[in-house]
Design a protein that fits this description.
Order of helices and strands: HHHEEHHHHHHHHHHHHHH
Helix content: 55-70%
Mean pLDDT: 93
Number of strands: 2
Low-confidence stretches: none
Largest sheet: 2 strands, antiparallel
Number of domains: 1
Length: 443
């Protein structure tokens, strides 16, 4: 068993099981403004070749749609949109919509229905391509990280179950979003950084791994313009420490650049903004009936003072939608980071860099937001933080077995909470029903 579990095929098997699980649970309709906005962008590109979403099923009600495009009880249009030069556009980063639209257009050529004909088929396919594949990739990569951390197969499986089934991931695998895709990209970066470190220890340079690191960094950069950009310098710093080679750092940076250029190029083509994300321009949110302005939009520095910022920063982690309070195993990761990282050890540089990245992104959103991610279970922006958090936990469980009962208890209650969040879906304005029972039981 142990010999097979340590083979690359085991990670692929884990990914296949995760993909099957996620694919069967994908919902055939949008659950809110957020995924409705992404689906509108993909549909418009696939069917009409434009980023403008005025004519999308998800931006305006359409009588000819045979099935509901939104969950029952929801308005049949997204309000996560921008008004630019007389047209509406999604407020989500535009680049991720391109490969999804290309994929669905290819399926249309093979006989799949147009989105307007079968919005349920279109939505389910997009969710599987974006979220099901990402859930699978994240699970497979984490299995490899668990092996690298020294976990035996049995405990590695228990630890992976905590990651895949006792967090917000199952809920976010059900409906279209890029946060779960960014989680997969960060997990892939972590695995490849291990290969870079191993090659450097043997006096070699892992050029293929460096190219992969740069590519995944570029992908992650475009999936969320708040969490993505700080990841790039953090990871390149690790490459510099491990390889001590300007050429190696340059190789990874060169692989990042085309993705960064493409993302900013689309940003400029749509809204004439080179650097600022389009949804950070208040003028593009000033359309009749818009629910967003400078009072609640993300990307605005507000005069709240150090105390106000500090309270909100803690709310992002421990509040009624806090990231740690909805991913219960991570409550052990906070003290685990102190235990594991205070002394030298394998992958310490990688974990320190990812911890610094998470802290920087958390601080950025604490300064530039005031809505805890909007209508979502937990703080959607922080989903990729699951990767360094569980990597630290893997090290802790391997090196300090006395903490294993604590992890099991937190994961058990986390699985109950995760099941309720899975049932609710990722887009929820009110508190998750099981929040207080699970939160009280963890103590």
């Amino acid at each position: 068993m142990r010999a097979w579990a340590d083979r690359p095929a085991a990670a692929w098997a884990v990914a296949a099981v995760a993909f099957a699980l996620a694919a069967t649970q994908a919902r055939p309709y949008a659950g809110g403004w957020n995924d409705g906005s992404r689906l509108a962008s993909v549909e418009s590109l696939a069917d009409r070749g434009t980023f403008a979403i005025d004519d999308s099923l998800y931006a305006a009600p359409r009588a000819e749609a045979g099935t509901a495009v939104y969950a029952p009880g929801l308005p049949a249009e997204t309000r996560d949109k921008l008004f630019i030069d007389g047209r509406f556009y999604s407020d989500k980063p535009p680049l991720p919509s391109v490969p999804l639209a290309a994929a669905y257009r290819s399926l249309m050529a093979a006989g799949f229905p147009r989105p307007a004909e079968r919005p349920d088929v279109f939505c389910r396919v997009v969710v599987i391509l974006l979220c099901g594949a990402s859930y699978a990739a994240a699970a497979g990569c984490m299995w490899s990280l668990g092996r690298r951390a020294g976990l035996a197969p049995g405990w590695r499986l228990a630890w992976l179950a905590g990651f895949a089934l006792a967090t917000v991931l199952p809920a976010y695998a059900r409906q279209a979003n890029t946060h779960i895709a960014q989680t997969a990209a960060v997990a892939g970066v972590a695995v490849l950084l291990g290969r870079v470190a191993d090659a450097s220890a043997r006096g070699r340079v892992a050029w293929a791994a460096l190219a992969g690191v740069g590519t995944l960094l570029g992908v992650a950069y475009n999936l969320d313009f708040g969490v993505g950009p700080p990841l790039v310098p953090a990871v390149l710093a690790v490459v510099a420490v491990r390889t001590r080679s300007v050429t190696a750092v340059g190789a990874a940076a060169v692989a990042v650049l085309p993705w960064v250029a493409a993302g900013h190029g689309l940003n400029f083509a749509i809204g004439r903004e080179w650097l600022r994300p389009l949804n950070m321009n208040p003028a593009y949110l000033a359309w009749p009936g818009s629910p967003f302005d400078t009072a609640n939009m993300t990307g605005v520095l507000r005069p709240r003072g150090p105390f106000g910022v500090g309270v909100y920063a803690l709310e992002l982690l421990f509040g009624l939608r806090g990231f740690l309070t909805h991913n219960l195993p991570l409550l052990l990761a906070v003290p685990a980071a102190w235990v594991v990282l205070r002394r030298p050890g394998r992958d310490r540089a990688e974990l320190l860099a990812l911890a610094a990245w998470a802290a920087a992104a958390w601080a950025l959103y604490a300064l530039l937001s005031n809505n805890c991610g909007g209508g979502c279970v937990s703080v959607r922006w922080f989903l990729p933080f699951l990767v360094p958090g569980f990597w630290v936990l893997a090290r802790l469980l391997a090196e300090r077995p006395q903490f294993r009962p604590d992890f099991v208890a937190l994961s058990a209650w986390g699985a109950v909470l995760a099941a309720v969040m899975w049932w609710c879906g990722p887009w929820r304005v009110r508190m998750v029903p099981a929040f207080w029972p699970c939160s009280g039981s963890r103590s």
